[in-house]
Amino acid sequence: MRYSGLKVITEGLFGNKGWGPAWRNPAPKAEYDAIIIGGGGHGLATAYYLAKNHGLTNIAVLEKGYLGGGNIGRNTTIVRANYYMPGNSEFYSHSLKLWEGLEAELNYNVMHSQRGQLILAHSDGQRDTLARRGNAMINQGDDAELWNLDQVKDFAPYLDFAQTRFPIYGGLMHKRGGTARHDAVAWGYARGADRRGVDLIQNCEVTGIDIVNGVVQGVQTTRGAIRAKKVGMVVAGRSSQVAAMAGMRLPIESHVLQAFVTEGLKPIIDSVISFGMGHFYISQSDKGGLVFGGDLDFYASYAARGNLPMVEHVMEAAMTLMPMIGRAKVLRSWGGIMDMTPDGSPIIDKTPVDGLFVDAGWNYGGFKAAPASGWCMAHLMATGDSHEVARRFRLDRFRTGHVMDEEATGSQHNLH
Ligand SMILES: Cc1cc2nc3c(=O)[nH]c(=O)nc-3n(C[C@H](O)[C@H](O)[C@H](O)COP(=O)(O)OP(=O)(O)OC[C@H]3O[C@@H](n4cnc5c(N)ncnc54)[C@H](O)[C@@H]3O)c2cc1C
Fold first, then answer.
1. Quick check: pTM over 0.85?
2. From 71, 285, 291, mutation site for ligand 1 pocket: most ligand atoms within 8 A of C-beta
């Protein structure tokens, strides 16, 4: 069934009885050509592009819970292509171009809104760094504008320009940046993959990876053994645990990241504002809630919920930047598990096990990456070669030293 405005109107007129399920609910087969472990944004996008770009349709996505129940449905939905380092820069640029055509591609309203992202500068040094980043973005073919204080004041008059702790000097505006509806991305890719014949198997936890003489044979699951010559591990915060099933130790630590949303308010913030000095960023959802977050909680954990010291830190930053937020009521908060690499950049690569591939290390920036990650992981699994925009996302870079330390914070996972 194609979705369209006309279909919404006719269904509305006739009692909404004509909608079918967006995807099937098949039982797992004994064997597939390829298995993707993980039904998050990246796993579903990988399956979709394997089918669409490479004609591989005898595929299963195995998800231990329900589709979109992981970080893809827990993030703050920011989409941007403003990375600085070679490697990240071309990859996120590719991803943003895929975002720009995603709704037409999937015939699904993912509510991609290019409302602009403004990163604030609070010192001369920071403004210089942003100028450098902006130049790198323009060289990559993306957009960037260095704004002075007056431009920031015109654009976001609700910021506190009188506060002296972190005075605002200007900012870097990325107009093609913005937001999208997070779980709709999972649903759109799921529906697209299903329509191409991919089996999406929910409530199916992978509990083991079968390997004989260094070659992958398939997986063990809570719904029985499933054979496949190619297996992709695309499990975000659970990457270390799933890789351990294949005897691998990944260069990843798992940390909690929290986010918050207020009650619905009238439109006030019509872009994304990033306040790096305070570890705070904010946007407003289509329902009116102010959606904001901050830094990681300061310890490694597999609990998808955070602790109060970080709540306090985020609220303090919010009040410093825009005291008017103190009038809003926070409706809820939540957390997700982040797979943090030592350089803050991801991994899309083969593993030492023949036929076993890994897509991981998305840190707290993997939502915007989902389209390109799926595109490149599908390319790798289908052809055995890295896609040109993901060539530097190698697993062995921490041994060879070819790291991409985007924020120049050193090798401590939780600082990225
Ligand atoms: C609070 C918060 C805010 C964020 N904000 C942003 C943002 O603004 N912009 C941005 O770009 N990114 C953001 N992120 C990061 C982004 O959400 C993640 O990097 C990205 O969603 C991870 O990829 P995924 O969607 O595939 O992960 P997930 O949705 O977590 O998918 C992994 C799936 O694997 C499944 N799985 C795990 N183990 C197994 C197993 N053994 N067997 C079968 N299935 C298994 C899980 O159940 C899960 O569904 C944020 C994250 C959080 C938590």
1. yes
2. 71
